[in-house]
Amino acid sequence: MISKSKQKFWISLVLITSAVFFQHSVVAQNSNNQPLKIGYVNANEVVSNAPQAKIALEELNQKYSPRESELLDMQAELRKLEEQLSNSEESNLTGAEISQIRSEARAIDRELERATADLNEDYNFDRNRRLEELQALISEVILAMAKEENFDLIVQSPVVWASPRIDITGDILERLEVISQQ
Predict the structure, then answer these.
(1) Other C-beta atoms lying within 10 Å of the C-beta of residue 57
(2) E strand intervals along 22-132
(3) Domain chopping of the chain, boundaries
(4) Residue 39 in 3-state DSSP?
(5) What DSSP string describes 128-160?
(6) How is residue 164 annotated by DSSP?
(7) DSSP string covering 165-179
(8) Contact, 74 vs 111, CB < 8 A?
(9) Mean pLDDT, the chain, integer
């Protein structure tokens, strides 16, 4: 059993500690006797709907669509060779011709795999680079807005919940729209 004096000591310690923490939290919130100005930004919505993201996606599609077309052509050629092989008995192909078609099909298949991997790697590299640039721009816009409008705190998603009153996502998107038109 804990003695009464130790019990009083621990209760006193808990009360004093609680009072100190409570006092500091109140002081931190009301140091200027002004309410805190807090904003919330839905980062996913900003990245998805920013005009710069749409422009970047269009540019990526334009840049990589010729290579995608080449891959589609290679796939069509591979299917054509596979059809020839499946119809080899009906076409009266010789063993040498069948071997030649198989060899061509394997070569095209290897080239197709390599070209697909290269395309994916290049596309992902460019996409990630552009995403990093967009995220840096978004951070600059958020920081500028925080300073201009005297925000004490701006948080980005993910958060458990944010009131629509403090949601500044639309304001950030408007600023990004203005920047995209310059």
Answers:
(1) 12
(2) 38-41
(3) 1-30, 35-180
(4) strand
(5) HHHHHHHHHHHHHHHHHHHHHTT-SEEEES--S
(6) G
(7) GGB-HHHHHHHHHHH
(8) yes
(9) 87
Query: Span 89-101, mean pLDDT?
Result: 85
Give the C-alpha separation, 132 to 55, whole Å.
15
DSSP 6: H
Rounded Cα–Cα distance for residues 110 and 119 (Å): 14
pLDDT digits (tens, 9 = 90+) for 43-67: 999 999 999 999 999 999 999 999 9
pLDDT for the residue 19: 41
List for the chain the helix, strand, coil content (%; round to 5): 75, 5, 20
Prediction pTM value: 0.70
Contact by Cβ (8 Å): 79, 105: no
Q: Closest Cα to residue 145, out of 182, 181, 170, 180?
A: 170
The 8-class DSSP code of residue 69 comes to H
Residue indicated by tokens 């995403």: 131
Closest CA to 78 of 106, 116, 48: 106
- In CATH terms, the superfamily for domain 35-180 is Skp domain (3.30.910.20)
Please give the DSSP secondary-structure letter assigned to residue 99: H
C-alpha to C-alpha distance for 13 and 17, rounded to whole angstroms? 6
